[in-house]
Design goal:
The complex is a heterodimer of chains A (129) and B (351). With 129 residues, chain A is mainly alpha-helical. In chain A, 56% of the residues lie in helices and 9% in strands. Chain A has a two-stranded antiparallel sheet. The radius of gyration of chain A is 16 Å and the shape is globular. Chain B is mostly helical. Chain B has a two-stranded antiparallel sheet. In chain B, strands 4-5 form a two-stranded antiparallel ribbon. The chains are: A mainly alpha (129), B mainly alpha (351). Chains A and B meet through strand 1 and helix 2 of A and strand 3 of B.
Chain lengths: 129, 351
Amino acid sequence: MLRIDLASRVPVYEQIANGLRAELVSGRFSPGEKLPTVRTLAINLGVHHNTVAEAYRQLANEGWLELKRHHGAIVRERDQPEAGPDTMERFTRPLRELVAKGLADGLSPSSLAREMIETARGLEERTAP
Amino acid sequence: MINNVPVNIRTMVAVTIGGIAILNAAILWFMPRLTRPDLYFAVTVLPGFRDRPDGKVILGRYRMELILFSVLAFIVFVAGTVLIGIGFAPAGPMIQIVAGFIAFYRARNRVLPHAAQPTMIREAELRQDKRTIPGGWIAAAGPFVLVALCAGYLWIHGSTPVHELIVYVLGMTANLTGLTVLRYGLGHWVRPVYSGGPERTREHQFRRTVAAIVLGAEYYMVIQSSWLLLVPRHHGLISLGLLPLVLVLVLVVILVLARLGQGGSRLAAGEKSSTASAVAVGDRTPDRYWKLGVFYFNPDDSAIVVEKRFGLGYSLNFARPTTWGIVALLLIAPLVSILAHVTGFLVKRGA
């Protein structure tokens, strides 16, 4: 299930790309499988089709999807990229902000840590060959 | 006398128009109760609103105004028929619809202050259901084949003037294409209101029923018009005789749809389900994009076919170019027919 929030400050196309990426990382879609067409997903979400097309293009640039005219988006076999020196920094910065927001909203450090470990383990188990 | 057959035309016209008027009145009376529980006079409300005192008062006033406006419309209709003649009769149902719309519009304005805040959350199932056109492509091709057969037969026998044949083929093909595109749209261009569960199954059933009705209408249209061309002797009599039949068919369709409720909302919950939970995600057509509560115009929505807000069935998103293509196809038949009649009339006058 893909979920977006139109009231969020994050652009809609980015929310769609993030949601789809999460589904792809979790291994819910195997290589060769088709995602809904741009038009179908746009209709189901009630957004303009250019918004969905932009999200699909972003995922195609990242190597997750292959876009074929009249055939929709097909999930690609994607090689695990080598993590660069700034990869961790790009990951930890938004994570720090998110954790800070969680703490500010009253969550305890231990519950946040537990949630993060469980999420990472869950994804690792699902993507394990 | 029509074609040497005695018929009380006035009685037939009066019965048909009276039937249409009663049907209109019944639809307008019951419609507010047949829409989805979260829609009231085309406004998004909390599901229980219609049963609250506020909701009941609005419905009461709407029905009161409906009676009042209908009586006024009836007076205009009677006066017009007396002064102008039976030719004014078809205007009766039109006047009634306008009167009903005024009552609806006033009720809508009373509901608007109670509108629920639309949800900003949107959800979509990524694994798609297999969507097929009810009856498949063979059933869809049937009406086109019938038109071709009828036109071919008339062409070979040469019993029908060529211009009439062209009007028939052109008009019917355009109309059938428009309706087929619409049926395809019901399968592919309508978004589900529920993401899963029995509600989703009911929605599919409703959509398939509407598509089947459209297909039935296509077959009826072709058979009737082909029959009138093939058996031209009692053309006028058959045309008039078919009016009550059409009325009965429309009544049956309305009863079937009313039993299902908008989007199948009145159906008993089924057991079949694609997913375990049913999440209501709304029709995602914000109130502000419904012009007069009836016409949907949202350029940011890719959907072409959307559920009606007031009524049973579907409407079109008039901000999409495809919609205008469908409308044009549906209008070609009457336009070509009118044009042919006017041209024929002018040619006769010139001669």
